[in-house]
Amino acid sequence: MSTSLDPEAVYTEALAWYRENWDPDLTLADWWGRLADAGWAFPSWPEGFGGRGLPGPLAKAATKARLAAGAFGPPNGVATFLTAPTLLHYGTDDQLQRYMPGIARGRDVWCQLFSEPGSGSDMASLATRAERDGEEWVVNGQKVWNSGAQHARYGILIARTDPDQPKHRGITYFLIDMDQDGVDVRPLREMTGDAAFNEVFLSDARVRDVDRLGEVGEGWRVAMTTLSHERDPDNVGLGDGAAFGRVDLTMTVGDHARNLSERVDGFSLALSGGVTKVLDRLVAEFDAAADPLLRQRLARILELRRTSRWSGQRATEAIKSGGQPGPEVSTLKLLGSETGRQIRDTGLAAMGADGMLWGDDAPHNGLFHSFAMFTPAQSIAGGTDEVQRNIIGERVLGLPREPGEAELRTRPWSELPRS
After folding, report:
1. Degrees (nearest 5) of the Cα angle 238, 241, 245?
2. pLDDT bracket for residue 367 (50, 70, 90)
3. Which residues contact 256 (CB under 8 A, 6 or more apart)?
4. Is residue 79 within 8 Å of residue 5, measured between CB atoms?
5. Which one, 115, 188, 251, 277, has the greatest CB density within 10 A?
């Protein structure tokens, strides 16, 4: 393992390793296993769990070496950018040993079971119940907008365990096995034609108490840590490829990479950050930079991304210090939504009349257009723009809460009005 604190030394060491080990003819299982064993899968994660415990600048140097070597990246998805960082923060030794290897090696697909039909923007009002039954919990309720749930082996779940507590304090966080009779997943078709989202019905589903993450009733705090990572566009768990769906680990890395390049959807393109490369290609192809107004738009996108990186560093520092994620995470989420809209509008404008096409008729088989159609979801998923502005207004600017909100936060959940 590298002990140097010099980015150049880490880059040199990582590059040498990649040049010796990278082989596109390896199966995904073999390649991701090599990455995890060497600690180069997610360099900032702890040793033994796919990483080397490197701080941000050194981890970025390792990623730079991988790109220079032309090597395919680590696994991607809810497992790597939501589950893993939350597990590393709150997980017991037993939970880390049971779940992290499958995450680092891409064996296990995870989904997020937070939002509900009546508890989206006000997620703390969730009604899914978990009741203790010996060493297990019995879960009943409905979740919605669950990305990749139709492919998931496990899920991160928040449920109400004490309805007599105020809504933020009676919630507990669980790691649930999706492969059981009490879990019914129903995909939702979107206007893009994809079905990345789902609704999940839980009917006497069971979770072992050893799969509870954090203390009973402290699920809101754990969930806020998860959401802080979801709202971070620089999350180290975000990979290069599609974020959702089962992966054939017996397929060679080269074949998998080629398949990804042919079927990347707008959702994955947004999450991976790869849309900026597509935008660069379109600007060059249509000579859009010759237009001074388009150049101004491109400059605005660059500044938004720089500001996002700064906010991301602040959010990461807050989490690593052991504190509760602060309002800087909301700023980061708003910046991400606005950057997505700016990229969408700039890319469509750069294509001129071709921006009105769809599907195979559009440039690059409609890859950018798929992202453009997905963009509205960025302002909703992980907390709406309106909710983020409320958080900033209340916690940063000191503005009063919504009328009656203070009382609702202290009353037992069972007494709250519900439609």
Report:
1. 95
2. confident
3. 28, 72, 241, 247, 248
4. no
5. 115
**Distance in angstroms (rounded) separating the CA atoms of residues 247 and 254:** 13
User: For tokens 């600017």, what's the residue?
Assistant: 397
Integer Cα distance of 409 and 394 in angstroms:
14
Beta strand segments in 94-196, E = 110-113, 129-133, 136-144, 154-160, 171-177, 183-188
Of 147, 153, 244, 245, the residue nearest 187 (C-alpha): 147
Kindly state the tokens that stand for 217. 């009733």
What's domain 264-383's architecture?
Answer: Up-down Bundle (1.20)
* pTM attached to this predicted model: 0.84
Strands 183-188 and 197-208, bridge-based pairing: antiparallel
**Both structure tokens of 253:** 């890395």
Residue 305 CA to residue 265 CA, distance in Å, equals 22
Q: pLDDT digits over 330-350, tens only?
A: 888 888 899 999 999 999 999
Give catalytic residue positions.
230
Q: Which DSSP letter does residue 77 get?
A: S
Q: d(Cα 347, Cα 330) in Å, to the nearest integer?
A: 26
> Where exactly are the structural domains of the chain?
7-83, 108-217, 264-383
Residue 85 identity:
P
- Under the banding of pLDDT at 50, 70 and 90, the label for residue 234 is low
Contact criterion met (CB below 8 Å) for 367 and 359: no
Q: Would you place residue 265 in the very low, low, confident or very high pLDDT band (cuts 50, 70, 90)? A: low
Average pLDDT of span 354-383: 87
Class of domain 108-217: mainly beta
pLDDT higher at 370 or 160: 160
